[in-house]
Amino acid sequence: MTQEFEELVSHAHDTRVVVVGGGVAGLVAALECAKVGMQVTVLEGADRPGGAIRTAEVAGIRLDTGAESYATRGGAVRALLDELGLEDRVTSPAAGGAWLVGIPGVGAAPLPTGGVLGIPANPWAPDVRRVIGWSGAWRAYLDRLRPPLTIGHEHSLGRLVRTRLGQKVLDRLVSPVTTGVYSARPDDIDADVAAPGLNAALTRTGSLTGAVTQLRGGPEVKPGAAVEGLVGGMSTLVDALVARLVDLDATVTSGAHVTAVARDAEAWNVTATLADPEAELRDAVFEADLLIMATPEDTARALLADTVPDLAREPGPAPVVEVVTMVLDARELDSTPRGSGTLTVPGSYTAKALTHSTAKWPWVARAAEGRHVVRVSFGAQGEPPATEGLDETGAAALALKEASAMLGVPLPADSLRGAVRERYAQAQPGAALGRAAEVASVRRAVAAVPGLAVVGAWLAGTGLAQVVPDARRETDRVRRSALFETIADVVDGDTPA
Fold first, then answer.
1. Between the CA of residue 298 and those of 50, 293, 339, 468, what are the distances in Å?
2. Segment (H or E) for 378
3. What is the percentage of the chain residues whose pLDDT exceeds 90?
4. CA-based end-to-end distance of the chain
5. Which of 5-9, 194-198, 325-329 has the weakest average pLDDT?
6. Mean pLDDT for the chain?
7. Is the pLDDT of residue 222 over 50?
8. What is the structure's pLDDT at 429?
9. By 3-state DSSP, what share of the chain in percent is helix, strand and coil, each rounded to 5?
10. Does residue 47 carry a pLDDT above 80?
11. CA 48 from chain center: how many Å?
12. Among 93, 104, 105, 100, CA closest to 127
């Protein structure tokens, strides 16, 4: 072993890292540092790590009450699961897609397949025409006859779809998808971020439907399973991350509310109020060579305002979503009347979406033992959840009423066996107009501060498929700087993994 490598190993073991926030982004960042021997402390303000991944016991069944799956694109999440030894827990959703409900003059219909963000490749396809009608199909067909956008391109997804394909495609196909995925209206979504390559493909093919066909790889491409889950729930991932960190001598502390962050010439100083076992509060200061912020946007900006002045501003209002998870004893749902769940045409229902979990996930069906698990979501960008202000009983009653309407079957009050409500302040949609430029500005400001990284959905975008690789990249950036730039003439090569 060379002297330089010995110095590198020694320096890694002497490097102190504090991660503020114990969601998946923070835990992944902590793991990237701990596995090279750094001294890692994770400070999580809530009473348990996991962030948007939450579980609860509902009518005797342990269920996901937050994020229930991850997108398979990119393979980053699957690689993490394999690394943690969870490959045998990975499961795919059952066959049977989602439905659209609230369609004017139609009511409900299966969500068409083979599109991009609800934009169809073929407006004449029977499943598409059923939703938009003959007049909508003819209007969408005009897209093939219009000239392509050869000078510049349209940033707003809503304006692009409205101009090319008409209002019915926008209202009945695209709006339900963007509201369900981003909690945002199509007019506020940046087409280049939400569907990279769409504008360029439009110019090449001469039509928006042709662009969708090209992005999908051809008219015969099947959508396939875009998501996967974990048997036992997504909290299995959180538990495995925490267990691996403990094995690597990292410290994960819950109930640690960080109140201040400062940097002097030698180190970062992180002040936190800790809840001790006797329910008393005490202040503690943690010194760190590397600081990784893995909190929501408002918290990160507030804590870093003095150190990174460019971050010292209030973020815009983020979507607030409430999810009511119910266990029902309802034979009417045995036939899975609306597949794995529903998306709503905006304005048609109080709720924005529903997941029939026992129809979607075989492991949930087994755990439910003949009962049904249904999740109803409320709230979107600029629209507070209808359950806000209701007590738990009122929220469950509203969710049951909406579920009955969206699934098209009677669900009487006595069918409810248990319910849990969870509230989330979501990150600003990464695909929102202007958001990409804002994120790039934040990245530049953070990179200019030695020993600092900022990770999480507010920069990476919503969903584990974006959060996990981003957390790894950003952590590797500061990890490399800390280890390599302080040791002269270190052996060429990658940071040890």
1. 18, 12, 38, 20
2. strand 372-378
3. 72
4. 17
5. 5-9
6. 90
7. no
8. 72
9. 40, 25, 40
10. yes
11. 19
12. 100
Point out which residues pair with 160 in neighbouring strands.
none
CA–CA distance, 494 with 497 (Å, rounded to integer):
8
- Across the range 435-455, mean pLDDT stands at 94
- CA 421/CA 423 separation, integer angstroms: 7
Identify the bridge partners of residue 341 per DSSP, sorted by sequence position: 355
Maximum separation of any 2 CA atoms in the chain, in Å? 76
- Runs of H (alpha helix) within 53-190: 76-83, 126-141, 157-165, 167-169, 175-182
Structure tokens of 128?
Answer: 């598409």
Q: Is the pLDDT of residue 150 over 80?
A: no
CB 146 within 8 A of CB 343: no
Encoded tokens for 256: 């640690």
Q: How large is the average pLDDT for residues 296-321?
A: 88
SS3 162: helix
| Lowest-confidence region among 21-30, 279-288, 349-358, 419-428 | 279-288
Q: Which two tokens stand for residue 452?
A: 């600092």
Nearest to 234 by CA among 341, 89, 374, 98: 89
Write 352-357 long-range contacts (CB < 8 A, 24+).
Answer: 352/179, 352/180, 352/183, 352/377, 352/378, 352/379, 352/380, 353/179, 353/180, 353/377, 354/402, 354/403, 354/406, 354/407, 355/68, 356/407, 357/63, 357/64, 357/68, 357/325
338 token code pair = 């609306």
Q: Which amino acid is at 155?
A: H
Radius of gyration of the chain (CA): 24
Residue 219: alpha-carbon gap to chain centroid: 29
- Asked if residues 347 and 383 have their Cβ atoms less than 8 Å apart, the reply is no
